[in-house]
Amino acid sequence: MADERLIVALDFHEMDKVQALVENLGDCVSYYKVGMELFYSVGVEVITYLKQQNKEVFLDLKLHDIPNTAARGLCSLARLGVSILNVHASGSYTMMKTAIDQLRQETARTGIPCPKLIAVTVLTSIDQTDWTAIGQKTNIQEQVVRLAKLTKQAGLDGVVASPQEAQAIRQACGEEFMIVTPGVRPSGVATNDQSRIAVPMQALKNGASHLVIGRPITAAKDPHAAALAIIKEMEMVR
Ligand SMILES: O=c1ccn([C@@H]2O[C@H](COP(=O)(O)O)[C@@H](O)[C@H]2O)c(=O)[nH]1
Q1: Residue nearest atom 11 of ligand 1, based on CA coordinates
Q2: What ipTM was assigned to the predicted interfaces of this complex?
Q3: Is 169 part of a structural domain of the chain?
Q4: Where along the chain is substrate bound (predicted)?
Q5: Does the global pTM surpass 0.95?
Q6: How far is the CA of 187 from the centre of ligand 1 (A)?
Q7: What do you get for the CA distance between the two ends of the chain, in Å?
Q8: CATH number, domain containing residue 128
Q9: Would you say residue 143 lies in a domain?
Q10: In this structure, what DSSP letter does residue 113 have?
Q11: What are 210's strand-pairing partners?
Q12: Is position 203 within any domain?
């Protein structure tokens, strides 16, 4: 049976690959993430398909723009009926506050269910070398916690962060705050371009509310078996 804390990233650009994977995983996965590759290739069709399959959708387009543009973009995306949308926290407190206020007003006005809005802190692919090269002087964890607190103050529902920072965010932002963690790799599986990683059990122990996992499932020889093994590991932490 599905563990609602697992979100599988559908990083494909063809609908037939999406359909094959969703059929293969069946009832063991109830939540999918649609990112730029898939949405820019296929568009709304993939959201319609996943909702027809009774799946929840995290539409991961990571908006990063001036407050009005980001907020209006989110209001347009909310019409798709997805469960989670996101922005970059580095877009500023003002952008996040404008975004959540307008999203709540617009969904209340139109009767559309309001999606959760979360903010990306520091991408899980970024390591200390990348971090220093873009001119950052603080350590990554301090910056992640700073952005998580700002996200909470702006009124958003949670953040995207690495499992390595989940414990510090949980302490700073409380039990109700969503902590969605990509950068999850079962033991012995390729890390690919991820840097700040943890195994599924550790991510949950650190306080993650949801795990986003793509290639360890989608690129596995047997995706169904890979998903079941991850779910079994996750079930050890409740
Ligand atoms: O900081 C971030 C934000 C988003 N992602 C997304 O999560 C998945 C991870 O896929 P894997 O194949 O498990 O690495 C991917 O869609 C990213 O765009 C992230 O990895 N890190």
Answers
A1: 214
A2: 0.99
A3: yes
A4: 11, 33, 60-69, 124, 185, 194, 214-215
A5: yes
A6: 17
A7: 15
A8: 3.20.20.70
A9: yes
A10: P
A11: 180
A12: yes
Q: Which domain holds residue 137?
A: 6-234
Q: What residues are labeled active site?
A: 60, 62, 65
* 1 within some domain: no
What the block records as the tokens of 3 is 């563990």
- Ligand 1 pocket: which residues have CB below 6 Å? 9, 11, 35, 120, 123-124, 160, 182-183, 192, 194, 212-216
Other CB atoms within a 10 A radius of the CB of residue 214 amount to 19
Give the chain's length: 238
Give the Å distance between the CA of 108 and the centre of ligand 1.
Answer: 31
pLDDT in tens, the chain (238 residues): 899 999 999 999 999 999 999 999 999 999 999 999 999 999 999 999 999 999 999 999 999 999 999 999 999 999 999 999 999 999 999 999 999 999 999 999 999 999 999 999 999 999 999 999 999 999 999 999 999 999 999 999 999 999 999 999 999 999 999 999 999 999 999 999 999 999 999 999 999 999 999 999 999 999 999 999 999 999 999 9
CA–CA separation, 99 and 104 (whole Å): 9
Cα gap 104→47, rounded to integer Å: 21
Query: Which residue's CA lies nearest to atom 6 of ligand 1?
Result: 182
Our mutation pick for probing the ligand 1 site, out of 11, 118, 191, 210, counting the most ligand atoms within 8 A of Cβ, is 11
